[in-house]
Amino acid sequence: xxxxxxxxxxxxxxxxxxxxxxxxxxxxxxxxxxxxxxxxxxxxxxxxxxxxxxxxxxxxxxxxxxxxxxxxxxxxxxxxxxxxxxxxxxxxxxxxxxxxxxxxxxxxxxxxxxxxxxxxxxxxxxxxxxxxxxxxxxxxxxxxxxxxxxxxxxxxxxxxxxxxxxxxxxxxxxxxxxxxxxxxxxxxxxxxxxxxxxxxxxxxxxxxxxxxxxxxxxxxxxxxxxxxxxxxxxxxxxxxxxxxxxxxxxxxxxxxxxxxxxxxxxxxxxxxxxxxxxxxxxxxxxxxxxxxxxxxxxxxxx
Amino acid sequence: xxxxxxxxxxxxxxxxxxxxxxxxxxxxxxxxxxxxxxxxxxxxxxxxxxxxxxxxxxxxxxxxxxxxxxxxxxxxxxxxxxxxxxxxxxxxxxxxxxxxxxxxxxxxxxxxxxxxxxxxxxxxxxxxxxxxxxxxxxxxxxxxxxxxxxxxxxxxxxxxxxxxxxxxxxxxxxxxxxxxxxxxxxxxxxxxxxxxxxxxxxxxxxxxxxxxxxxxxxxxxxxxxxxxxxxxxxxxxxxxxxxxxxxxxxxxxxxxxxxxxxxxxxxxxxxxxxxxxxxxxxxxxxxxxxxxxxxxxxxxxxxxxxxxxxxxxxxxxxxxxxxxxxxxxxxxxxxxxxxxxxxxxxxxxxxxxxxxxxxxxxxxxxxxxxxxxxxxxxxxxxxxxxxxxxxxxxxxxxxxxxxxxxxxxxxxxxxxxxxxxxxxxxxxxxxxxxxxxxxxxxxxxxxxxxxxxxxxxxxxxxxxxxxxxxxxxxxxxxxxxx
Amino acid sequence: xxxxxxxxxxxxxxxxxxxxxxxxxxxxxxxxxxxxxxxxxxxxxxxxxxxxxxxxxxxxxxxxxxxxxxxxxxxxxxxxxxxxxxxxxxxxxxxxxxxxxxxxxxxxxxxxxxxxxxxxxxxxxxxxxxxxxxxxxxxxxxxxxxxxxxxxxxxxxxxxxxxxxxxxxxxxxxxxxxxxxxxxxxxxxxxxxxxxxxxxxxxxxxxxxxxxxxxxxxxxxxxxxxxxxxxxxxxxxxxxxxxxxxxxxxxxxxxxxxxxxxxxxxxxxxxxxxxxxxxxxxxxxx
Lengths: 302, 482, 286
What we know:
The complex is a heterotrimer of chains A (302), B (482) and C (286).
Chain A: H1 10-36, E1 39-42, E2 46-49, H2 53-59, H3 62-93, H4 101-109, H5 116-126, H6 133-142, H7 160-163, H8 165-190, H9 194-202, H10 207-235, H11 239-244, H12 258-268, H13 272-301
Antiparallel strand pairs in A: 1-2
Helix pairs in contact in A: 1-13, 3-8, 3-10, 3-12, 4-8, 8-10, 9-10, 10-13, 12-13
Chain B: H1 29-46, E1 56-60, H2 63-78, E2 85-89, H3 92-105, E3 112-116, H4 117-120, H5 137-142, H6 145-148, E4 158-159, E5 162-163, E6 166-167, E7 173-178, H7 179-184, H8 195-202, E8 218-221, H9 227-237, H10 253-266, E9 273-274, H11 281-288, E10 292-298, H12 299-308, E11 316-320, E12 337-340, H13 348-360, H14 362-372, H15 399-406, H16 419-439, H17 445-469
Helix pairs in contact in B: 2-14, 10-16, 10-17, 16-17
Chain C: H1 4-37, H2 67-74, H3 78-109, H4 115-127, H5 130-143, H6 150-154, H7 161-174, H8 177-185, H9 190-201, H10 203-219, H11 222-227, H12 236-246, H13 251-284
Helix pairs in contact in C: 1-13, 2-13, 3-7, 3-10, 3-12, 4-7, 8-9, 10-13, 12-13
């Protein structure tokens, strides 16, 4: 697997750029972030030591609690809505004999290319209260039905961007990212051994049984990877709500996410120390989740 | 993919992909496209910039301002009385970012920065010495400008007694109403003195004539989610959000009464308000349809309506705001801009001359009114007959004069950077209260007011906790970067 | 008696019933984007997509206009932003691809002291969440005097850990060690081997990674916002957001701007599509 004679310095030279960038822009800032989190700052030059006060305040900071809650809701939305949709699309695309698979795959993936500003403008047009497309469609289709979902007023007035900001975000993210996850799932599905599926069907298993008994276990590693990616990404949601809500958290801060709060604290209020503290709490949350997922998956694979 | 057998060869040839040309083996077509773009763009980007630098750069955030300044600045450059000034228009967030970047990180900034109130207050987040703008107090005093300019206009730019900006405006607020609808219903607005009068007297306009079970229109454009509505009304009532020492204080009986009233405006059986957003096509359509009768109208907003709603010309009129109690204040304030000089500038005296000349020129004052409907803060200019011209859009009223007459009553505001946070917490309290009114219509009167006070107290404590923990702003510790 | 062929046609048809409407829904925003870019302000709210009129297919073709685009390039000077985006994205993509390929290759094919540590560093870097580094990273750039410079934006992006990881996987999969030996026997220097033997074998992953990093930098909004301040350095992502901030009612203008910023990536994507998908899934389907 490795050669016995080679330039002694070669591997170091090849790795040098990566290691240099890593040292300056990852390792050092990482260490600094620990220091910064114990200070209160106003810009990169003014700071004062406050010990663990940042963390103490963070733990009882209602805005931070709100940010965590919102972020978790969004993550749940991604996990339980976006991923199943992506999987569903992939399953449909996996049918043998389906022509235009590549074209369809391109179509579903295309939203990745547009960028978030467009998504934000479009979302604000779609989710507007009276003139928005979504409400107009809902009014047409649902009319008076399902009125119990609303507390008052017709569908036309449904205030997506006021009280259901999270839903607007989840739906927007669905449009944008379902295609990406679909690509992963599709690749995994296409690697599933066809003979296994045939054997199962010969044994009399129906489509659903076949899915749970053969397909699902076969794609579990990829599914695990996609879930991990999705949760890690969702917990770090920032740019989409930031642009959609015009650099804020939206009405009543319903669209405030952890990283948005981090950014606001660091670059709008100027307290890079508090931002670092938030960053560490986020890192711990991510670590906990990653370990949890490892644990669960290991149990399943046993 | 063809592989070379490992044991032969005297020369190592790169394995080829298919039968394509050799260079395609390293990168695909797309890859080479990236390489080409990288090379070409690097060359283009590094080309020296042959732009001529202007003598002075000015940042603003509103295209109309830029349009007003340009002819004046060009004229003064041409007659040789001053140098060239380049104006750059940025969005407010960009302006804020670059201003702060300049103050905190030394990134280059313009020579003159025109900052809106929310952006400017960011500069006042630390001790007085750390403010990135030049302290103009002494210069203003020497030039007699502290008296010559409307007093309340200095409010948002005054920090710890020092003034850091030259005011751009006064921005009194009046109530704009659909005169066509009101007069057709035989209502006399002269009878309206207070907000309670307003709700009572205008109510017949909310009749349900098309039988769909909902009022055909609402009386006032006001919604808790539109935060800019809330502050003018609170300021009008008198207590404001901060005390004279810039410490947060808004949990008062007066404010509780204001919030309680607002909650009944938007929820419950006495609802008279509707959500008709400014700066939106959807909102404009609703205004044209007559979905609301009245709206808060600072001077600058009348210009926006004039531009975006020409169909309403002649149908609107202005009146002083109904007061919160008999004999109370009949105006408020909304918005504000200042011109500041960054401390990092090399030639502050020269820049001060530029700033004064632009902002205090009679030509600009006239321009502000004719093009922006904005009244100047310079008291000497108030004699200009231009303010008395009947305004066709507003039913031939002498709009400018009406606003100027209200100028002495315009409330003075704080410069605290915590103002936005305080306002947001008040907004949260209002939203919660509105929800409670919606679900319990019986909640009213004294009970409603005391609940409002409760919510305001909670909100105030939260803001105070944050203000207190901010040791840097209070200058309690003077640390330096680790 | 349903044959296998009948069954597969049926199942495919069933799939189409669901897929096609969804595909249409997914594409609707794009259609809106393109049609809006060619509508003037007055026309904008007159119709959802194309302006109604007396022309072919009931569309008023004459009402379509290029004025949004001309305004973009003259009044708003978006040409500079476009150039900046092209520069930042292509240079970062190129440098990142070369650095990560080199790093991945070294980790995969060489045995050297410290290999274990380097591998551990790569894995650790994968775990560190980016938001944690924003605040101290800004301070580092400030101290190095790299704020408001292109370098300050490009440099941190030229060696993402996941890139090294991907390339390592790719090298392990696609590069037979015997070839390296052959190269050495022929007297090729290590760099020569890397350039002439290894890189071609990595072509799909190279294409994929170029696309990934190009797209990431192209759509990167917060980075440029924090690091770059001068307007003549700002890329399209920030310029379009600026449009939204200043000309918020001018939807036609904003859509034209978006179209300008989508077009180059779309072209690149069409060229690199196959590589992109295979590279993307390489990391997942281990």
